[in-house]
Amino acid sequence: MGNEEFNINTISGVLVVDKPVGLTSHDVVQIIRKGTNIRRAGHTGTLDPRASGVLVVLVGPAVRLSEYVSASDKRYQAVMQLGASTDTYDADGTVTSTAPVEVSEEQFDDALQTFVGEIEQVPPPYSAVKVKGKKAYEMAREGEEVDLAPRKIKVYSLELLEWAPPEVVIDVYCSSGTYVRSLAHDLGEKLGCGAHLVGLRRTKSGRFTLRDAVPLRKLRESFETGSWYQYLIPAAEALTDWPAIELSHEQVESVRHGHRVAVESTLGEWVRGISEQGELVALMEFDSETSEYQPRKVFF
User: Fold this and answer.
1) Which residues contact 152 (CB under 8 A, 6 or more apart)?
2) Annotated active-site positions, please?
3) 186-245, pLDDT tens digit by residue?
4) Which residues contact 108 (CB under 8 A, 6 or more apart)?
């Protein structure tokens, strides 16, 4: 597809990138802004510079989906080192304590499973969580005591993939807002030998997996050849776990003006309103009093 066939102002969709180690999530967004010439772009959940894997970037009007896509569940493959704790909970930090690893595979797995479910987790001191208007990592770097409040997260499953102490590899399936670094640190505390994160790869974010992701190198090449549109996923696919109602041409016009749509049976509290062409028209909320769906965010 040639560039001339597109109106750059109407492009809206998702680019799923396999982020390499060494770049911040913001770096990737900047590369995409420059490569696409689209100013409106944003990621839906930070990946640390030393982490790789699935980074979902919304482009054009689709950025308005951010709060919904960001709240999606995540899946990671995490490499932990047992026998040492660090102040950052990962390999970037200073070692704060060491201990011999006298833990069997069975003991490790038993301790691991105690973190499954709804748990309270304290974010790492070196994180972007704000305390009194300042980012925690800025305070930590300045030597200030960082007192972060625990937050409720959900861990759906934890699976031991590789047992090669002092290194272990685990699969982490969790809610958004989970810090795998904190999980590694807390697990080390529980085992009594200490632990920190040495490698992290996000394998899934919401409905997007590594299979959907394009390596950043390939995406950069496609910017130069003008063929990057082949990687753009329609905005309507970003929330495929939400029910959808197909809107007729008349209903699309009606929804665009903020009018409600009556339905015979409710599909759920929130639905995607999709045009007959499969484009995302609006996110709509059910009103039980009128049995109608009210548009909350309209996309065109």
Assistant:
1) 118, 119, 120
2) 48
3) 999 999 999 999 999 999 999 999 999 999 999 999 999 999 999 999 888 888 888 999
4) 160, 163, 168, 191
CA–CA distance from 272 to each of 204, 235, 283, 286 (Å)?
Answer: 22, 11, 5, 11
- Which residue's structure tokens are 């930090």? 93
Listed in order, the ranges of the chain carrying CATH 3.30.2350.10 are 3-72+207-237, 74-205
Domain 3-72+207-237 carries which CATH code?
3.30.2350.10
Q: What's the pLDDT score for residue 2?
A: 41
The CATH number assigned to the domain with range 242-298 reads: 2.30.130.10
Largest separation between any pair of C-alpha atoms in the chain: 70
* pTM of model > 0.85: yes
Strands (E), the chain: 13-19, 41-43, 51-59, 74-82, 84-86, 95-98, 117-121, 130-131, 134-135, 151-164, 167-174, 195-205, 208-209, 214-215, 233-234, 244-247, 261-262, 270-275, 280-287, 292-298
Rounded Cα–Cα distance for residues 11 and 169 (Å): 40
CATH superfamily of 74-205: Pseudouridine synthase (3.30.2350.10)
Per-residue DSSP letter, 26: H
CA–CA separation, 156 and 186 (whole Å): 17
What DSSP assignment string belongs to 161-183?
EEEETTEEEEEEEE-TT--HHHH
Query: Which tokens is 66 given?
Result: 């951010």
d(CA 114, CA 187): 9
